[in-house]
Structures are given as structure tokens and as C-alpha cells.
Design brief:
Strand content: under 5%
Helix content: over 70%
Shape: elongated
Radius of gyration: 17 Å
Number of strands: 0
Largest sheet: none
Number of helices: 11
Number of domains: 1
């Protein structure tokens, strides 16, 4: 088997990236309108997207596919107005995830779960403006949703909460991965992931 990405790999990559992103948005869009849920939005995204991501892993046999998915996810998030920091975090955590999956020969359930949890941390890129560009972020929220919404979002996002956001994403990604694995038992067996 060639280690280079083929047309079939790229088609799978494109289809699963869109599926992953659309399912994530189905959770993020309605919940994102409620400021108090902003800190847990990434964790809920990681939980619900565990199913399509674990299905994607049954098709991944080549290094780089998860990295590309991370970059594309960040790009799509940027195009929806959440900033383009997700491209950088998608590349970083996608690459680390690819290395984890490769170390398990793309056949380890344990490495798949850990790989997905690490991959999911790319979502932190969407939070970077709220933590490190506070005034710009607040002004952007105020322009889009009003002063009251902006004040409430920034109130629930103090700097120290970034640790909880990352931990929540990681833990909920493990749970999402376990859910995906349970629902996709036959796919995992067929792909030889044990």
C-alpha cells in the first residue's frame, strides 16, 4: 500500500470533514447564542463529533489525513466568522493526533481515542481571541449581538477558565470517542481496529 494520499483518501477526507463540521455546528450554533454555555461549547462539540470522527478513523490508514482535517476544520471555522486561529491549532493538534494514530499502526482503539481527544483540542483556537484579544473580541460580539451579550460572554470567560475549557474538551472527546466506538462496533471490526 502506498503511503501517499490517493484520490480516494482525499474524497474520504473531504466528506468526513464536512460531516464532522456540520454535526459540530448543529450543536454549536444554537448553544452559542446563550452566553453562559460558551465555556462548554468546545466540550459539547467534541462529544457530538466523536461519532463521525471515529467513523473517519476506520478509513484513515495514511499519515497526514488527520492533520489536513484539522487544518480544514480551522479554515471552515474561520470562514464562519470565528477567526482563523483554528487553522494553526488544527495543524498542531492534527499533527500530534496523526503521530499518535501512526504509533498504533492505525489499528489501536486506545490510540484512536487518545488521538481523537488530542485532535479535538484544535477547537481552543476559536477561544484564543476571547482570552488573548479581549477588547477586540468583546467589540466583535457587541457589534454582532449587542452590548449585553458581549458583557455576559466575557464575564463567563475569565483567563483562568482556559484550563477548564481544554480539560473539558479532552474529557468530552474521550466520551465522544467511546460513544462513536460503541455505535460503530462493526465498522471497527471490519477495519481491524482492536
Amino acid at each position: 500500500m502506498s503511503n501517499k494520499l490517493q484520490a480516494k483518501d482525499l474524497i474520504n477526507l473531504g466528506l468526513f470533514t464536512v460531516l464532522y463540521f456540520v454535526i459540530g455546528c448543529c450543536v454549536a450554533i444554537p448553544i452559542g447564542f446563550v452566553p453562559i454555555f460558551m465555556p462548554i461549547l468546545g466540550a459539547l462539540w467534541a462529544l457530538i463529533t466523536g461519532i463521525p470522527f471515529m467513523l473517519f478513523l476506520t478509513r484513515v490508514k495514511k499519515f497526514g489525513m488527520v492533520t489536513i482535517m484539522g487544518i480544514l476544520s480551522g479554515l471552515l471555522m474561520g470562514l464562519t466568522g470565528m477567526g482563523f486561529w483554528g487553522v494553526l491549532t488544527g495543524a498542531i493538534f492534527g499533527l500530534i493526533s496523526d503521530l499518535i494514530l501512526k504509533s498504533g499502526g492505525y489499528k489501536s482503539v486506545k490510540k484512536s481515542l487518545i488521538g481523537y481527544a488530542v485532535f479535538s483540542i484544535w477547537i481552543v483556537g476559536t477561544y484564543i481571541p476571547m482570552y488573548f484579544m479581549v477588547e477586540d473580541s468583546r467589540a466583535s460580539f457587541a457589534a454582532s449581538f449587542g452590548e449585553e451579550y458581549a458583557d455576559k460572554v466575557m464575564a463567563v470567560m475569565p483567563m483562568w477558565s482556559i484550563v477548564l475549557v481544554i480539560a473539558g474538551i479532552f474529557v468530552f472527546a474521550i466520551l465522544g470517542g467511546l460513544l462513536g466506538k460503541a455505535l460503530l462496533k462493526k465498522h471497527f471490526a471490519k477495519a481491524g481496529i482492536v
